[in-house]
Write a structure and sequence with these properties.
about 220 residues, alpha+beta, 6 helices
């Protein structure tokens, strides 16, 4: 009687085994040589490297009260540079952050400076500037690296300046004013990049002309 009971249990467990575990081919679907679930992969396309590196210094939401209610826009302050002596600062405002960033990039290209650096990448002498309540001084140091903070450090990195020490004399925490004071100090050892401003003005003029022609075609009046 005991032998009969043992045989029945073992046969029952053997019959339940495959139902629980199942075969790996029925679960996975890929071990039997089938096609992957994701399908064919897209071909890899390398992204074009941007002309300048950029750093968003300030991004804030601005609310204006109008007759219909409140209108919200985004204001962006952005710095760009090639890490080889060229740096620019721009601001932009739009209803969307991407549009505001694009406007800030265009404004920064208009106001770019080419700095006059030494062979080691430092500045030739002490420079000092003040904008609003932000006052700072940038001094060269020999082999001590970049010692700076706030928005001034970001702009020095984008410009590729090395071995300098900056000191903000006031307690201002407004990054935009500090960045503008830094650009004012940079103007003492640099000169404006003209070709970016001319190219931007030409592109704006072409866009205005195309918009005027499109409006003239819609209204039926020939464009001048």
């Amino acid at each position: 009687m005991a032998e009969h009971t043992t045989t029945t249990k073992s046969s029952g467990s053997a019959s339940r085994g495959p139902a629980r575990g199942g075969s790996s081919s029925s679960r996975g679907g890929t071990s039997t040589g089938g096609a992957p679930r994701g399908g064919a992969r897209r071909p890899f396309t390398e992204r074009a490297k941007p002309e300048y590196d950029q750093k968003i210094l300030v991004i804030r939401r601005v609310t204006r009260v109008v007759s219909g209610g409140r209108r919200m826009t985004f204001s962006v302050a952005l710095a760009i540079g090639d890490r080889k002596g060229m740096v620019g600062l721009g601001t932009g405002k739009a209803i969307d952050t991407s549009m505001a960033i694009a406007k800030a990039q265009k404004d920064a290209k208009k106001n770019m400076l080419k700095l006059r650096l030494t062979k080691t990448g430092s500045i030739p002498h002490d420079i000092e500037a003040k904008f609003s309540s932000a006052q700072l001084m940038i001094m060269p140091n020999r082999g001590r690296g970049l010692i700076s903070g706030s928005a001034t450090r970001d702009m020095l990195l984008l410009a590729g300046v090395k071995d300098v020490t900056s000191k903000i004399s006031t307690g201002s925490k407004n990054k935009l004013n500090i960045a503008r004071a830094t650009m004012k100090a940079f103007s003492l050892i640099g000169k404006k990049v003209i070709h970016h401003k001319i190219a931007t003005e030409k592109a704006d003029a072409a866009a205005d002309l195309a918009a005027a022609k499109a409006l003239a075609l819609e209204s039926g009046v020939p464009a001048e």
